[in-house]
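Box S1 | Example of a co-folding query
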Amino acid sequence: MDISEQITIEYENVHKRFDTPVLSGVGLTVRRGETISILGTSGTGKSVLLKTTIGLITPDRGDVRIDGVSVYHSNPAELRGIRQAVRYVFQYAALFDSLNIYDNVAMGLEPETLRTLDKKVILDRIANSLENVNLDPSKVLSKLPAELSGGMRKRVGLARAIVGEPRIILYDEPVTGLDPVNAATVNRLITSIAERTKVTSIVVTHDVPGALEMSHRVALLDNGKLRFVGTPEEFKGSDDPLVMAFADRQAAARAALKLIEHETEDNESGTPHAVSIGV
Ligand SMILES: Nc1ncnc2c1ncn2[C@@H]1O[C@H](COP(=O)(O)OP(=O)(O)O)[C@@H](O)[C@H]1O
Ligand SMILES: [Mg+2]
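Box S1 (continued) | Returned holo structure for magnesium ion
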């Protein structure tokens, strides 16, 4: 897929600490139409980074710009423009339990749109968004989230993200907690949404094979900084031990196993014990 040279998101030297430093100088530029995945162990600040993109968390230092407009140094009108341009797909879909699917997806539209557009047009847009994530509107529109499976709820979350036709979608662990089949479906939908709408996507994920398949670039957040940013090929070929551990769980497992076997050999003479390790 073609991506333009035009930069759409810029993180510049982003710092954020809570009790301890979380982000310590993150810099990244994302081009229009690009899909970039962010990997990293739990608690490294991936969600914090996503939240700085839309002002949910304010950096202590540094800046984030969307199409050249600072999220932190702009006037209310500019901020409204940014809010319209960006959608955030929260972890666990974050649907409203007491609202039916129609109303949940409608939350992705601007209040102004809901007020001014014809009801029939709004229904069409909502139905369209559901169809684009392989859900049958006639079956799900009046259901409550609790009546749907986990995979379907995630797809409703995607429908809500695309219904307002944003230029940027931020996905926070869109496949975490899903079985492999549903995870692959959601990954494929993220790719098809990007291809169809040319939306710029940042995907925080633990699904490394999925990330390598669907992204133009992958980044690895570690210790407050982006330790690696590059294409999937560069990621697979990297000789950074941490990248290698993320790129190939089997290689990581073999390396860990070797280490354990050596330790066993050192400690007791004789054949190494069979060990099982949780990777
Ligand atoms: N609003 C907050 N207040 C205090 N600490 C926070 C807040 N949000 C995140 N943190 C802390 O920042 C660190 C990174 O969190 P997070 O970005 O959620 O990690 P992850 O990479 O798993 O998404 C964690 O130690 C978390 O406890
Ligand atoms: Mg997170």
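Confidence is low (pLDDT under 50) at residues 266-279. The two ends are 34 Å apart (CA to CA).
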